[in-house]
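FAQ: What does the model actually see?

It sees only this:
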Amino acid sequence: MRRMSEEPRTSRIQRQVVQLILDRRLTAGAPLPTEAELMEALGVSRNSVREALKALQALDIVEVRHGYGTYVGRASLTPLVDGLTFRTLARHDDDTGALAEILQVREVLEEGLIRRVATTATEAELDKLEDVVMRMEEAARGTGRSFPELDREFHEVLYASLGNDLVPQLLAAFWTVFRRVSGARGRPDDPSPEITVRRHRDIVTALRARDVEGAQRAMAVHFRGIGAGAGQESRGVG
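And it is asked to produce this:
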């Protein structure tokens, strides 16, 4: 009973600490008030402050540096990545279905975003994409193995023209979850490196032509190839 009664209070103190950060316009890396100052400001015990800070640390809202103090965290998407990874791996009875759900969310996001990129990407940004594809080709010839980091770089560069900081963070989160889960589950291999290179080149070709529909189709084909390994080729999810 005591544990249950403590939980709402801890949640309330967490919200108060967050509100304090917002009210004081503290940014990532800025020091928080000391435990004693928080106790006085919030009217709670030291133990309550510590419990709230631990919970906020798990969310990357605060960072506790032992021996130095507590600071505003980066508020990254790491908790989201960890939570989605666990949620997906915990579905023991439906491995491929859970993995395909992650991929489907990423596909929906990227097929929508690519339409905007087709009208906003500069020639310099398209040259950067071309450079990544060329490095993919070199890797394919040199090792004959897949190149997930270059694939990830391609998608990060792809959306730079949107000027939206959340987009690469969110897509990277889903990318990381997919890789973690597929690695743990021993998912079938990706398409051959040559096919992967061709699909990325098709995306760049469509973007250079400012072909919105073509870019979206090329992205859909790319994801369909990934989805085949996740058991979703028949639904076109990838």
